[in-house]
Amino acid sequence: MAYSERELLARLIQCEAGGEGDEGMRAVASVIINRSRATVGEFARVSDGGNVRNIITQPGQFTCLKTQNNTQNIYNMNPEDIHYEIADWALAGNTTASVGNSLFFFNPYSSTCPNYFPTNVGIIYNRVGDHCFYAPTAAYANT
Questions:
Q1: pLDDT per residue over 120-138, tens digit each?
Q2: Contact assessment for residue 41 and residue 141, using Cβ atoms and an 8 Å cutoff
Q3: What's the whole-model pTM score?
Q4: 56-137-120-93 Cα dihedral, nearest 10 degrees
Q5: What does the buried/exposed string (b/e) look like for 41-75 if buried means 16 or more CB atoms within 10 Å of the residue's CB?
Q6: CA distances (Å), 59 to each of 7, 19, 88, 97, 105, in order?
Q7: Cα torsion for 32, 106, 86, 30, to the nearest 10°?
């Protein structure tokens, strides 16, 4: 099924950060918007001028887009009003200062965040809930 951009984002928010409260969900949505606004590197090419759908569906980026051996994926989500509200907020161009210009996030299943995103293209910016958020390093421009 081809979901609208709004539906796709609401499902991704619920799947990736549904248990992280409003701020955690806004933080994840902000990364999507930051990626769609990137002017250099991989995400600038993928977004092709700001296409949020391209960012969300980029292969290998979000666990919740993987369906093989993963029952917690966007196709099994049932977004609620809050997920749509945050999707609308993000699609209107809003982002949260708690993640700044972060382009990456992940849950390290640890009480601390590594200083660098695993590929060294991001440096720790902040932790929101269980997720660590990473701002791009200079190396990111070469991706």
A1: 899 999 999 999 999 999 9
A2: yes
A3: 0.94
A4: -20
A5: bbbbebbeeeebebbbbbeebbebbeeeeeeebbe
A6: 18, 24, 24, 27, 16
A7: -40
